[in-house]
Specification:
422 residues; alpha/beta; Immunoglobulin-like; Rossmann fold; 6-stranded mixed beta sheet; 32% helix
Length: 422
């Protein structure tokens, strides 16, 4: 017999014995030693019985062969921060014998709640049993449910053998989207529908009144006659006559943010980006998402599919290593910036105007100094610099109720009222 295999089997058997089982064996050996020394055969018989009971139970439980199938359903399949979902786990005995009593434990990521525990009675061949528990999404990201661990026990509590399934369920938690209300974007900045149709009709034919060239436009759409007249590159609008573009820029530099957990400045920035982006997509805008160093994160998103991809990508967005601020990342009819108060941000916003003729720029300035960043500038100073650069800017304070005031802040910025959240 393989000695190594015997040693492994002995170790597994020792781990399977509960404290009660090990105690019974220890008492048995003690009684056996006392019976041998005192010459009492009856006491020796009792000692042998105490030793044999855990050993026989261990052999019996170890030889129990049960085959279980596991199916897990999460409703809804995708969560937003703050949402709850129900998880239903079903176990099916696909073997040929009864399972006996089982202890069930389902692992759950800490961001979704606590592990679930259940006691499962005997399952006959082909029978199924289900249990349901609730998870709560506490932070965005992709989190795991599982694996499921099954522990076989004996009626005396002497032996426990644990088996684990390998399957795990990935649950995506997207950022919370705050309803910003209808808002009163001027018709100039509406994406699709009657508002933009009215503006374009008032202006006349798109070929006659082209727009300014933006980085990424097809060179074949350049309107050379208008370009020569204005001294700047102009492009035709005929390919997308009713669609407006919006750029959303967010500062992802980890050292520029402060705070921990869901209330940190970084998570606040992601919530603002998600809320504004979904609002614009539902108004018919085609949006681009950029980092403050000019990196394009997502481009030309629109419609329902664009919204789904937008939220899914935001769910997995992490802070980046230190990055510099881009000189001019914004080229759109509507520009939204979510910036920290880090040094240099004030000069960037003052010197880089967010808009050309008829375009609009809105800047959310996170008060990262109040979040605990000792290097941050005063948010109101950054805000004033942004306004001098042509932005409609407002301060986002470091408070637990900040997000509840986001709809009012958004509406005031659209109206051109620059006061930050109070």
């Amino acid at each position: 017999m393989n000695i190594a295999a015997l040693a492994r089997g002995t170790q597994q058997g020792a781990r399977a014995l509960t404290l009660r089982g090990k105690g019974l064996i220890a008492v048995g050996f003690g009684l056996a030693a006392g019976a041998t020394l005192s010459g009492q055969p009856d006491l020796l018989s009792i000692a042998l019985l105490l030793i044999a009971l855990p050993v026989i139970t261990l052999i019996r439980v170890s030889r129990r062969r049960f085959s279980l199938g596991c199916d897990r359903v999460v409703v809804p399949t995708q969560l937003a921060v703050g949402d709850t979902a129900e998880v239903t786990t079903t176990l099916t005995n696909v073997g040929s014998g009864d399972t006996g009593g089982l202890l069930i434990a389902e692992s759950v990521s800490a961001e979704l709640g606590r592990p679930a525990f259940r006691v499962l009675t005997r399952l006959k061949p082909g029978a199924s049993a289900s249990f349901t528990y609730t998870i709560s999404a506490q932070q965005r990201g992709q989190w795991l449910i599982g694996p499921l661990r099954v522990t076989a026990v004996d009626p005396f509590g002497l032996v426990r053998l644990q088996r684990a399934f390998r399957s795990q369920h990935k649950t995506l938690v997207v950022p919370r989207v705050i309803d910003l209300g209808t808002g009163l974007l001027q018709a100039e900045h509406l994406g699709t529908g009657d508002g933009s149709a009215t503006v374009l009709a008032a202006r006349g034919n798109d070929d006659v009144v082209p727009r300014e060239y933006h980085v990424g436009d097809d060179m074949r759409r350049i309107h050379w006659r208008a370009s020569a007249r204005t001294g700047a590159l102009m492009v035709r609008r005929e390919e997308q006559p009713w669609t407006r573009r919006a750029s959303i820029v967010v500062d992802l530099s980890g050292p520029s943010h402060a705070g921990m957990g869901p209330l940190s400045s970084f998570e606040t920035a992601i919530t603002i980006v998600a809320s504004v982006g979904v609002t614009l997509l539902r108004k018919g805008f085609r949006i681009d998402l950029l980092a403050s160093d000019g990196t394009m994160l997502l481009g030309s998103l629109h419609g329902i599919t664009g919204e789904a991809r937008f939220l899914a990508d935001l769910a997995l967005l992490d802070p980046t290593p230190p990055t510099s601020l881009a000189a001019n990342p914004l080229h759109a009819d509507l520009s939204i910036g979510v910036f920290t108060s880090r040094p240099g941000c004030d000069h960037l916003l003052e010197q880089q105007a967010p808009r050309g003729r008829g375009d609009l720029g809105l800047a959310f300035i996170l008060d990262t100094a109040a979040w605990g960043d000792p290097q941050a500038l005063t948010a109101h100073d950054v805000c004033r610099s942004a306004r001098r650069g042509g932005w409609r800017a407002a301060v986002v304070p470091a408070r637990a109720d900040t997000m509840t005031q986001l709809p009012q802040l958004w509406a005031s910025m659209l109206r051109g009222e620059y006061a930050g959240a109070q």
